[in-house]
Automatic annotation (TrEMBL):
Family note: Belongs to the sodium:neurotransmitter symporter (SNF) (TC 2.A.22) family.
Family annotation (NCBIfam families): Na_transp (NF037979)
CDD domains, A to Z: SLC6sbd_Tyt1-Like
The species this protein was found in: Marinomonas rhodophyticola
One Pfam family in the UniProt entry: SNF
Name of this protein: Transporter
Places the protein is found: Membrane
Primary site of residence: membrane
Transmembrane segments: 12-32, 44-68, 88-114, 152-169, 181-202, 222-247, 259-281, 310-337, 349-368, 388-409, 429-450
Keyword field: Membrane, Symport, Transmembrane, Transmembrane helix, Transport
Membrane topology: Multi-pass membrane protein
């Protein structure tokens, strides 16, 4: 019997799921965010906690999302509607995929602005803009960009056009063509960059910083940052992986596929660290330099290196590509829903959603300069969206989705999905999700809110 498929088709080969999901996972979170969060949280200790979070929280939740997507083979909103029509779950659960879609939408509004900075830096890199740049010069270059809405608007628009054109194709075709080539290129190039950086930079201090374990450095904040980054980096909590799971062939073991995605995600984050830290230490730059690590420190380094212009070009190109394959997954939920529910052509649906994101994105980039008013809690729109999505919407989305799968979807339905001829990881996953991942996420999120 041919296997059931969803309206969007299924991935042309089981492996494409792994490429697409890894493409979604690997993004600004790995290359831009991971190194500076590692720096802020003291290196090696954070890394150990982060790996544990990936394994005990990220992986089980990722499996839950993908499995739920594959059971019904529809977009997340219709999947939950379908389950409630069959009286399997209460209709109120449909709020969860809606929340997930809105989270993706909101994340994309500022993700696209940051991706726009990456294109701006790609432009500077290839035109020799970093040549012999000093610390002062690099900071003022970044500040100047933030103070120039017209330039940010240009690159934000270019990025959104790329996103819309890719999502507008059927993901099972458009996206798979993109990720199949780009992901291996990204990993190999990062590997080469990391070797180069270790050769010319301060390798021993970098390795010592990244991998040295010390108990004293583990505080509650470190754990909180690690869980947040693990969820963000694996793209869970907003239905993107749920949608990708719907296109996955039944022949593939979900647990195995998801474990590979987690492995690739961690590998890329580590490689990004190995590119950045040897250079940071040899140039004596502060490792705690938050988001300016990528946009201020790296240009100084590249600008003063032999062949720096070429390596800077490659690095920022990679950053843009990684951001693109992630951004696509943030729009997929609503685009698939509009297509399946209202028969709107995918390109039209992508255009509609893309324009809405683009509009809000304009407000976001203006909040960095002309409209820098504090809206709430002393934060401007950019900061507010970042905090609101990563501290509230994503963890709440991840918790609700996991609770839905672990406690409300009938066990045999999941068992069917998880057990393949080649593998049976069901028990292990089910117990970890129920008794470790969900309680851990609840405790950590609540403690984070109360400000323990
Ligand atoms: N994982 C991506 C990154 O590391 C970002 C991302 C894509 C994401 N889709 C997501 C984050 C869904 C949260 C939810 O940059």
């Amino acid at each position: 019997m041919p296997e059931s498929r969803c309206l969007q088709g299924i991935w042309s080969s089981p492996w494409i799921f792994i490429f697409a999901a890894s493409g979604s996972a690997v993004g600004l979170g790995n290359i831009w965010k991971f190194p500076y969060v590692l720096g802020e949280n003291g290196g090696g200790a954070f890394l150990v906690v982060y790996c544990l979070c990936l394994l005990l929280v990220g992986l089980p939740v990722l499996i839950a999302e993908v499995a739920l997507g594959r059971t019904v083979r529809s977009n997340p909103i219709d999947t939950v509607n379908d389950l409630s029509e069959r009286r399997i779950v209460h209709p109120a659960w449909v709020l969860v995929p809606w929340l997930a879609g809105i989270t993706g939408f909101l994340i994309l509004t500022f993700y696209s602005v940051i991706a726009g900075w990456s294109i701006a830096y790609l432009d500077r890199a290839i035109t020799g803009g970093f040549d012999n740049i000093t610390q002062v010069g690099a900071s003022s270059m970044f500040n100047e960009l933030l103070a120039t809405p017209s330039e940010m608007l240009l690159w934000h628009s270019v990025f959104m056009v790329l996103v819309v054109l890719t999502v507008g194709q059927s993901v099972t075709r458009g996206l798979s063509a993109v990720v199949r080539i780009l992901l291996p290129v990204l990993v190999v190039t990062l590997l080469l960059l990391a070797c180069y950086s270790m050769m010319i930079g301060n390798m021993s201090e970098a390795l010592n910083f990244m991998f040295r374990w010390s108990w004293q450095n583990i505080t509650f904040d470190v754990v909180l940052a690690a869980v947040g980054l693990a969820l963000f980096s694996l793209s869970v909590g907003m239905g993107a992986m749920f949608a990708y799971g719907a296109y996955m062939s039944k022949r593939m073991s979900i647990a195995r596929a998801c474990s590979i995605v987690v492995g690739v995600d961690l590998l890329v984050a580590l490689l990004a660290g190995l590119v950045i830290f040897p250079l940071v230490f040899s140039f004596d730059i502060d490792v705690q330099a938050d988001s300016s690590l990528t946009f201020v420190s790296l240009p100084i380094i590249f600008g003063n290196l032999l062949g720096g212009q070429f390596f800077a070009g490659v690095f920022f190109l990679l950053l843009v590509v990684a951001a693109l394959t992630s951004a696509i997954s943030m729009l997929e939920l609503f685009v698939a829903w509009l297509h399946e529910k209202f028969y709107i052509a995918r390109l039209k649906a992508a255009l509609l959603m893309g324009m809405a994101v683009w509009f809000v994105g304009i407000a976001v980039l203006l909040s960095l300069n002309h409209w820098d008013s504090k809206l709430m809690f002393g934060l401007n729109l950019f900061e507010l969206l970042d905090k609101f999505t990563s501290l509230i919407l994503l963890p709440v989305g991840a918790i609700l989705l996991s609770v839905l799968v672990a406690w409300f979807i009938p066990r045999p339905m999941l068992q069917n999905e998880m057990i393949t001829k080649q593998a049976n990881h069901f028990q292990w996953w089910y117990k970890t999700l129920k008794y470790i991942s969900i309680p851990a996420m609840i405790v950590i999120t609540l403690a984070g809110w109360i400000g323990v």
